[in-house]
Specification:
The complex is a heterodimer of chains A (220) and B (222). Chain A is α+β, with helices and mostly antiparallel strands and 220 residues long. Chain A has eleven helices and four strands; from the N terminus they run βαβαββααααααααα. Chain A has a four-stranded mixed sheet, covered by helices on one side. In chain A, helix 5 packs antiparallel against helix 6 (115-137), helix 5 (106-112) packs parallel to helix 8 (156-169) and helix 8 packs across helix 11 (202-219). Chain A is globular, with a radius of gyration of 17 Å. Chain B has 222 residues and is α+β, with helices and mostly antiparallel strands. Helix content of chain B is 54%, strand content 8%. Chain B has nine helices and four strands. Chain B has helices at residues 13-20, 33-45, 61-66, 86-96, 107-133, 136-155, 170-188, 200-211, 213-216, and strands spanning 24-28, 50-53, 75-78, 81-84. A four-stranded mixed sheet of chain B has the order 2-1-3-4, covered by helices on one side. Chain B starts with 12 loop residues before the first helix and ends in a 6-residue tail after the last helix. Classes of the chains: A alpha+beta (220), B alpha+beta (222). Chain B: Keywords: Transferase. Chain B: This is glutathione transferase. Chain B: It is an enzyme of class 2 (transferase).
Chain lengths: 220, 222
C-alpha cells in the first residue's frame, strides 16, 4: 500500500476536512504539521502554485485543494462514500460544495476586518447561512442525509470555527433561534463518532485566532 | 440511443419513458463564457439539446425556478432535473454520457485537471476581466498578474499538444474561452495579454485548439 501523508496545520478547517475524510474511510496516513510562517521546502515543492495546506501526498504525488482531495479520496477508496452514486445527486452535492467554497470565506472576512467592510461581511455570512439552511440542509439530519457526506465536511467551518470567529470579533452570527436547523446540525455533526474525537481544541483556537486578529488589525 | 419497438408497448409506457429520457435543455446567454463551456461539452459528446437564450435583464420564470439560488446561466436541464454551475455541469455530462470522456480516467490526473480548472477560473479569469475596467498603473498590474497566472497554466501543458494529451478535453473546455476573451481584451482594451513571444506554448495550444474539427464548428469561435 502506497504511503499517504497529510500536510496541514492544526487550526485550519481545510486541514480537518481531509483528516476526517481519511479517518471516515479508514485510510492510514501520516500527518505532517506545517509552519506557515516558515514554509518547508517540501510544501513549496508540493504546492508551488498556491504554497498552501492541506496537501495530500499519495505515493509521492501531491494533490492540493481540500475539496479536490476529497474527490480524489472518494475515487481511490470507494468505501464509506462521501458522494452519492447517482450523477444528478452528485451534481447537487458539487453545487453546494462550490457554493460553500465561494461564499463561506465571508465569515473569515468578518474575522479579518472591522468597520464597514466587516458589517458587509456579516451580512454576506447571514445570507449564506440562510441559503444553506433552507436549500441545502432542509429537514435532513446531515447535509448528506442519514450520514455525513461531502457537503457536511465542506460546511464544517460553520460547525466549529464560526463560534471561534464570533467570540474573537464579538459578533454573534449563527444565532440558534434564527437558524434552528443549522444550529441543530452543528451539534449533530460534532457529536458524530469520528468527528467528535478529531476536533481542534476551541480554547487553544481562541488564543490563536485572537492573536492573529490583533496582528492583522495592527498591520492594517 | 434506444431502439425500442413501439409495437411491443401496448400500454404506451415505454414510449413515454423513451420520450422522457435524455431530454436536454440548456439555458444560456450568448455572451457568457460559462454557457460556452457547456455548449462545447455537449457538442464534443454529440448530445442533442434544446437551447434557450435567456434575456438576463428579464430572466425567464424557468430560469428563476431552475436556479433559484443564483438565478444565473448556464443551467442544464436533463429530464426536468436542473444542473447548475458550468464545471459541475461538465462533470455531470461526463458521468451520464460515457462516450468521448472529457475528464481523464485516472483519479490523480482528474485531481490535477480539477485543480487547474479551478486555478484558471479563480486566478486567470478575474485578472482578464479586470483589464477592461482598469487604467494606467492599475491596469499594468492586472495585466502582469494575468500573464503570470496564464504562464502557470501554460506550464500545465507539459510539452503536450493539449492538456489531456492528443485530444481536447476538460481543461480545454474549462479554459479555451480565456483565449477568446484575451483576444477581445487585446482588441478593445488595447493590451497584449498572450502573444507568440511571451507565451508561445499557450499561443500554440490555442491555435491547435482552433484547428480541431469539432472546435471549428463550435459556437462562439467565430
Amino acid at each position: 500500500m502506497a504511503e499517504i501523508e497529510l500536510h496541514g496545520t492544526w487550526p485550519s478547517p481545510y486541514s480537518y476536512r481531509v483528516l476526517w475524510a481519511l479517518k471516515l474511510k479508514g485510510i492510514p496516513y501520516e500527518y505532517v504539521e506545517e509552519d506557515l510562517s516558515n514554509k518547508s521546502p517540501l510544501l513549496l515543492q508540493y504546492n508551488p502554485v498556491h504554497k498552501k495546506i492541506p496537501v495530500l501526498v499519495h505515493g509521492g504525488k501531491p494533490i492540493c485543494e481540500s475539496m479536490i482531495i476529497l474527490e480524489y479520496l472518494d475515487e481511490t477508496w470507494p468505501q464509506n462514500p462521501l458522494l452519492p452514486s447517482d450523477p444528478y445527486e452528485r451534481a447537487v452535492v458539487r453545487f453546494w460544495v462550490k457554493f460553500i467554497e465561494d461564499k463561506g470565506p465571508s465569515a473569515w472576512v468578518v474575522f479579518r476586518t472591522s468597520g464597514e467592510e466587516q458589517e458587509k461581511a456579516v451580512k454576506d455570512s447571514l445570507e449564506m447561512l440562510k441559503t444553506i439552511e433552507e436549500h441545502a440542509l432542509g429537514e435532513k439530519k446531515y447535509f448528506g442525509g442519514d450520514k455525513i457526506g461531502m457537503v457536511d465536511i465542506a460546511c464544517s467551518g460553520i460547525a466549529h470555527w464560526l463560534q471561534v470567529i464570533e467570540e474573537v470579533v464579538g459578533i454573534k452570527i449563527l444565532e440558534p433561534h434564527k437558524f434552528p436547523r443549522l444550529h441543530a446540525w452543528t451539534k449533530t455533526f460534532k457529536e458524530a463518532p469520528i468527528i467528535k474525537d478529531n476536533l481542534p481544541n476551541q480554547d487553544e483556537m481562541l488564543v490563536f485566532f485572537k492573536q492573529a486578529r490583533e496582528k492583522l488589525l495592527a498591520s492594517a | 440511443m434506444h431502439h425500442l419497438d413501439c409495437k411491443k408497448d401496448p400500454t404506451g409506457l415505454i414510449t413515454k419513458l423513451r420520450m422522457a429520457e435524455d431530454k436536454v435543455t440548456l439555458l444560456g446567454f450568448w455572451g457568457s463564457p460559462f454557457a460556452l463551456r457547456v455548449k462545447w461539452a455537449l457538442k464534443l459528446k454529440g448530445i442533442e439539446y434544446e437551447y434557450i437564450e435567456e434575456d438576463l435583464s428579464n430572466k425567464s420564470p424557468l430560469l428563476l425556478v431552475y436556479n433559484h439560488v443564483h438565478k444565473k446561466v448556464p443551467v442544464l436541464v436533463h429530464n426536468s432535473n436542473p444542473v447548475v454551475d458550468s464545471l459541475v455541469i461538465i462533470e455531470y455530462i461526463d458521468e451520464v454520457w460515457k462516450g468521448n470522456p472529457l475528464l481523464p480516467l485516472d483519479p490523480y490526473q482528474r485531481a490535477k485537471a480539477r485543480f487547474r480548472a479551478k486555478f484558471a477560473e479563480d486566478k486567470c479569469m478575474g485578472a482578464i476581466i479586470r483589464t477592461f475596467f482598469t487604467e494606467g498603473k492599475e491596469k499594468e498590474k492586472v495585466v502582469k498578474e494575468g500573464r503570470e497566472n496564464l504562464k502557470t497554466l501554460e506550464s500545465a501543458l507539459e510539452g503536450k499538444k493539449f492538456f489531456g494529451g492528443e485530444t481536447i478535453g476538460y481543461l480545454e473546455i474549462a479554459s479555451g474561452w480565456i483565449r477568446l476573451w484575451t483576444q477581445i481584451v487585446e482588441e478593445i482594451a488595447g493590451v497584449n495579454v498572450i502573444d507568440a513571444e511571451t507565451m508561445p506554448v499557450l499561443n500554440t495550444w490555442f491555435d491547435n485548439f482552433l484547428e480541431v474539427p469539432a472546435v471549428v464548428s463550435l459556437p462562439g469561435i467565430n
